[in-house]
Structures are given as C-alpha cells and as structure tokens.
Amino acid sequence: MRHSRRSHFSTRAGFLLEIQGMKRPYGLAQVYGWLLLAPAAVLLIAFTHYPAVATVIHSFFSTGTATRPSVFVGLDNYRSMLEDEVFRKVVWNNLWFALGTIPASIAIAILMAVWVNGRLPARGLVRMAYFVPTILPMIAAANIWLFFYTPDIGLIDQVAALFGLPGHNWLGDPDTVLGCLIVMTIWKEAGFFMIFYLAALQTLPPELDEAARVEGASRWYFFRRVTLPLLMPTTLFVLINAIINSFKLVDHLFILTKGGPDNASSLLLYYIYEVAFSFFDDSYAATLTVALLVALAVVAVGQFVFLDKRIHYR
Amino acid sequence: MNGARGATFGHALEVGAAWLLAGLWLMPLLYAFWSAFHPAQFATKFALLSPLTLDNFREVWEQAPFARYYLNTFMLVSSILAAQFVLCTLAAYAFACFRFRGRDVAFALVLVQLMVMPEVLIVENYRTMSQLGLVDTISGIGLPYMASAFGIFLLRQTFKTVPKELEDAAMVEGCSRLQILLKVYVPLAKPTYLAYGLVSVSYHWNNFLWPLVITNSVATRPLTVGLAIFGAPESGVDWSVISAATLLSIAPLLIAFLLFQRQFVQSFMHAGIK
Questions:
Q1: pTM
Q2: B112-159 pLDDT tens trace
Q3: By CB count within 10 A, which of A66, A98, A295, B245 is most buried?
Q4: What is the rounded distance in angstroms from the CA atom of residue B31 to the CA atom of residue B143?
Q5: Which CATH architecture has domain A80-312?
Q6: Domain spans of chain B?
Q7: Helices and strands counted in chain B (H then E)
Q8: Is the preceding peptide bond at A51 cis, omega within 30 degrees of 0?
Q9: Residues 99-158, chain B: which have Cβ within 8 Å of A?
Q10: What is the ipTM of this complex?
Q11: For A151-181, how does the pLDDT look when each residue is reduced to its tens digit (9 = 90+)?
C-alpha cells in the first residue's frame, strides 16, 4: 500500500516535471539550461576562448606601429621564435624548474602527510607550519626569501660564515640562481600538495595498518608496498597540478631576479610578460603564448590518457 | 624487546625530523616577524635582547598608501567572490539538473579554463580590456576570474549528490525552478560554498601577475602589486620596513588562517578531492 502510494507520488511528480520540460530532452529545459548558463558562458568565452583563438590569429601578424599597420606575415614570428636564443633559454629554464620543483615537492608532501597523519606530538602546530606557505602571496614570500639569499648579510651566508665559508651572490650567479628559485618554490608548494595526500590517507582503511602490524611488516615496507601504491591516483592528480603550476608561477621573479642575470632565471610566462609589456611586441608575445598553450595542451592530453578519471571524478 | 625499542627509537627519530622540517618551514615567516619588530640595525643580527619597536609599521603606513591598497584588495576579493557565487551557482545548476542540447560540449568547454587560466592569456585580455575601457579598474582585474570553471565544476559535483526526491517534492509544492535552486540546492551545498569561498579569497588576495598588468594607479592597485612596488630594490627601503610591509599585507589572511586553521585545511582538502 505504502509502496504504491509512493510510486503514485513519484509518477505524479514525474508527470509535473514532464510538462515543465525538466525531463524532456528538448523542451523548456533547453531554454532554462542555456539561460542559466548564459552569464558564465559570456564571460568564459570573452576571457578564455576568444583570447585563446585571438592569440593564435595574432601570432600570424606583425606588430603594428603608428606608421606601419599590422600585416599578415605567415610563419615569420614562429621562425624568429625558433631562432630566438632567449626563447630557447626560457624553455630550458622552465624544464629545469619543473624537474627541480615537482619530484622534490611531491616527495616532501608525501612525507609531511604521513607524519601529520600519524602519531606526532604537537601535530596541529606541525601541520600549521607545513601549510602556512600556501596561504602567503608569492610576492610576500619572495620579499622574505630575498633576505635569505642576499650576499654576506643574508641568512644563508651568515650560517655559512659560522662554518668559515665565504659569502656568495646566490641570485647574481647564473649557476645558482635557478636553484634558489627552485628551493623557494618547493617550500611554497609542498604544504599545498600535502593536503591532497592527507585527504587520501584519511580514506585508507585502518585495517590495512593493523593487518601489516600483525604480519610484522616494517613501517618502511608497509609504506613502500601498501601506502605508496594506494596514493598513486593522488600522485597523478598532484603531478598534473604541479606541471601546470610550473608554467604559471612567475610572481617571485619580479622580486627576486627579474629573470636575470642574463635570463638565467627567466621562465616562459615571465618572458611573455616582458615581450608584451616592456618591449611592446604584441605579435611576438602572442607567438610565445601559443607555445605556452601548446605545452598546456600536451599536459591536458597527458592527463586524459594517464589519469583514470573514475578515481577522482564520480 | 629489542625490536620494540628499535621501533620507539625510529619513531623518535621521525618526530625529530618532522619537527625539524616544521621549523625550517616556519623560518621565513619567523624571520619576517623578527625584522619587522626590531630596529633596522638588528634586522640581520640575531641578538636575543634587541629592543622591540613598531616604528617600521608606522614608516610603511606613512610612506605608501597601504590603506588604499587594503581597500582595493578588499573590494576586488569581495566582488569576485560575489560574482563567482552567482555565476557558478547558475551554471552548475544548469549542468547538474537540466538536459539541454550541447550540454556535454559546453561542459567540456568550461573545463578548458582549468588548464588555460587567465594568467596565461594576459596579452589578449589586456587588449580586450583596453577596448572595453576597463584598464586600471577593479572590474578589469576581476572580470576574467568571475566565471570560474573550478567553481562551476565543484558546485555541479555537489548538486549532483542532492537526492532527486527533494527536488520532486519541492516541485509538487509548487516551487519554481529558481526557488528550488535557492531552497533546496544552495542550502545543501553550504560546505562547498565555504570551501570554495576560502580557496577563492586566498587565491585572489595573493594574485599578482594579472593585477600588475592591468592596473597603473594607486586607486586600483591591490596589496600584492603595492607591496611589489614598495619593496622593489630600486626604492631603497631597508629590510625591516619591507618586512613590516610584507606582514601588513598578509596579516588578515594569516590571522584568519590561524583562527580557522582546521576550516582552511579542510576547505582546501574538500576542494581538492572533488
């Protein structure tokens, strides 16, 4: 009885929905769907899709000046990009920057998450310490780190002096400058990635740990053979985020090095900024942006191929 | 017995390492506090009994329009958040509850923004803004971020978990679609709004590159850009004052974080696993 009333109710509701077009694929739902979407769609098209397409188009034109209007130049901009030594330099820098920051910050993030998830005195304080760099602006962080790297009076050189080591111009030396940026970026990102691992660790069944303890497995063995494989989906997810970030993070360059010395620390997005807003060469900046978009597209395809969507997105 | 002692020793070692790392991670911030609250000559000398002072903060406040920067950042962050809540809610509702032609393609196009963030398109977006006459305005800084793919995605996932029966019941009660959204979906998605709100506020409080490009006056510059200009080596300001300025610009977020630490961490987690 109860069951039949319920089903009657649901068909009645279903019927109402039917008339109002909610369940019919091509009824009023069409109008409502698009109307609801419209405001966001307009902004997304105006500031994401249109500029992406316009970037590609502008990369085929020369930069117009007051006396010479912009003309179609075909692949000329791309040709000069491939011959541009600074471009090659920043692409290499970007690769080294990614290679230096990503594995290290992921490894530290896993370590942090395992520690903060386990038995640990003053756990809240430790977690706070790990996470705090995440909420600081990159600009503020760079201001502070600038002091660490300052020759002679900076903290690193002061510590080095205690051991009788000479001072060093960390940010002024092309051999050390990128390393300095990498260290700072690891500091900034590890705590952020820790959060994802912490979330993943908390979903692991505690029985696994108990079973391993009964079996007498060592902590390291358990971590290597059980925890780490189970964290694999998280690692892939974090990896994608980290790769995107490595193309996007340039704020600290404005404070620490301005890309120098001699472009030794410049990254692709920073170079785009310089070309567009210091050298005012819009077409070449567009060409460089296309290179960046291609890199991001490769990441997107990689994500599509490697990341098992069912694990993260229901 | 020996094994147990080995395990405790190992554990103690791990605790030590965890604390050491925590200390290292806090050091930059602790240093900023040290130099901001001490006179300039102690900025690089760590004598325990150095005199404390607030002069550095006074100097920052007098030398640069930080009050204005605060106001700008506050207006920027709140207008972006308000617009994001409205736009993302509507779009997420459309994606979660309506079947319309082209929905899946539209959703895929929305997700493009997760990869191609506005930071990447600074050149073209600057061109657009100057055509719209929005260069050097707060709305010019905010507009590219207001329709956020991340927000739409997050809310859509949440809306999809709302039981269909609730919606059917509300419909039988005679609620309109907008009422259903406001009375059924939005209240049930409160934790998601909180999580997304915290992530969005901290992102835009800290955002730098696009605001730098699009602003060129004190009247619009947010804190990050103001801080970068103030702290530029060319300006010749000393460490202590720069540290004080840095602390000033991060203070509200830092205090909020210390007060609501658990909430922050959980929000970032919530936003991350969706």
A1: 0.87
A2: 898 888 999 999 999 999 999 999 999 999 999 999 999 999 999 999
A3: B245
A4: 36
A5: Orthogonal Bundle (1.10)
A6: 2-57, 65-273
A7: 15, 0
A8: no
A9: 99-101, 103, 106, 109-110, 112-113, 115-128, 143-144, 146-147, 149, 152, 157
A10: 0.89
A11: 877 788 888 888 878 778 888 888 889 999 9
